[in-house]
Amino acid sequence: MANIALNTVCNRSCSYCFAVNDHEQHKQKEMSLEEFTSTLRWLKGSGMKEVRLLGGEPTLHSRFNEIVELVLDEGMNALIFSGGIIPARAMEVLIAAPANRLSLLINVIRPGEEARLEKIQQQLFAQLGPKIIPGINIPVPGIDLHFILDWFQSYNFQKTVRLGIAHPIYRGNNQFLHPRHYREVGRRVTEFGEAAQARGIHLEFDCGWVPCMFPEGAMSKLNLTPNDVGLRCNPIVDILPGGDAISCFALANLEALSVREFQNVGELRQRFTVLQEPDRPLTLFRECDACAWRARGECSGGCLSGSLRRLRSKNRGVEQVDPPK
Amino acid sequence: MRTVKITPGVEWSVERYELLLRKPGGEFDRIGYPQAAIWDLLSRNYDWNETVKMMVHIAGLNAESAEALVAESIQTWKAKGLLI
């Protein structure tokens, strides 16, 4: 798995967005077609069958239609991460692409979240429903997720909903779900998950969920394994518009590597893993060192970016007087 | 009077049973309790007398033992490069 960030421009302004960082290469507005073509072939050479396109808003890329056609011509499938406000010209290629070759993971606008854009997104759902996997990002506790269930029937979405925790950008300032709210979110997700399962809808979890946030017994009720939650903080590899790669957007300010220096994506991911290894003793909660999930190797301690936030430093010049002689 | 400072670049996180310290080079060290409490007090700018007094209460030591524990801890951390 690896993602290609086609561009940095977006037509939404989500407060929790973590695709915003100071990396020099991320200041480049969009990836050139040449860069994309060579990255695509590199990914194909790495054995990848699916290309994941994100941004910014990837459909705003000036050559988005050509990019999608290139992916399909290479015999690869496309998964497009979008905010769901898609320009008309990009709709042409999205409508034309076969449903078994192209899917869209849409960051759903919750009722009342951005009233101005809600209707536009609903029109998209009506046009592309069967190609859509709805995704909901959770930046605050107390979000009722049930609204999405009826939309599966209304718009004939794919039978999966992807849930994401809004994670902090390391040395960034985006809105994120504070770990103190994880348990409340876990409780709500469990209730929602049971209702979703009753309708045959599968829950897919983005990175950084941890088993301790769910009520006792919820993991088995929702058929969750440590690979779904707990062990999901690994280098994803996001390739930036300039061609460099970062481990993930949350850790974009940590280090970037040049894709060209690696034979394949597996080698690149391995390098990020090695670079992050020294920080892996860090965990999201202070209680992690007494946690049974972690002791059993079923949880790695949550999002590394969130864990790094717990580090305190003393650059404020605190002094301690030595003992009297 | 000499002073000690936490070495610039040293970062730490408070865990349930210990402190995890990351040195500027990325290497980790651990401090268990009750010494972790000394580190915490030190980072909060407590002076020598206040630190010893607090350790009497936190660790249930007499003043002499608390003073010895604080002195030994500071010496160890200086030797490890955690303090300068």
Main features:
heterodimer; A: 325 residues; alpha/beta; 10-stranded mixed sheet; 12 strands; 30% helix; B: 84 residues; alpha+beta; 3 helices; 45% helix
Order of helices and strands of chain B: EEEEHHH
Instruction: Supply Rg of chain B.
Output: 12 Å
User: What's the β-strand tally of chain A?
Assistant: 12
Which segments of chain A are poorly predicted (pLDDT under 50) over 5 or more consecutive residues?
315-321
Please give the order of strands in the largest beta sheet of chain B: 2-3-4
Average pLDDT of chain B, rounded to a whole number, is 91
Largest interface: A-B, 25 and 35 residues
List the total number of helices of chain B.
Answer: 3
Low-confidence stretches of chain B: none
Tell me the structural class of chain A: alpha/beta
Strand content of chain A: 15-25%
Q: What is the makeup of the main sheet of chain A?
A: 10 strands, mixed
Total number of beta strands of chain B: 4
Structural class of chain B: alpha+beta
State the shape of chain B.
Answer: globular
Could you characterize what this model shows?
- The complex is a heterodimer of chains A (325) and B (84).
- By secondary structure, chain A is of the alpha/beta class.
- Chain A has ten helices and twelve strands.
- Chain A has helices at residues 33-45, 64-73, 88-96, 115-128, 147-155, 182-198, 218-221, 265-276, 292-295, 304-309; strands at residues 3-5, 50-54, 77-82, 102-107, 132-138, 160-165, 202-205, 238-239, 244-246, 256-258, 312-313, 319-321.
- In chain A, a hairpin with a 4-residue loop joins β8 (238-239) and β9 (244-246).
- In chain A, 42% of the residues are buried.
- Chain B is of the alpha+beta class and 84 residues long.
- Chain B has helices at 35-43, 48-59, 63-79; strands at residues 3-5, 11-14, 18-22, 28-32.
- In chain B, α2 (48-59) packs across α3 (63-79).
- Chain B is globular.
- At the A-B interface, β11 and β12 of A face β1, β2, β3 and α3 of B.
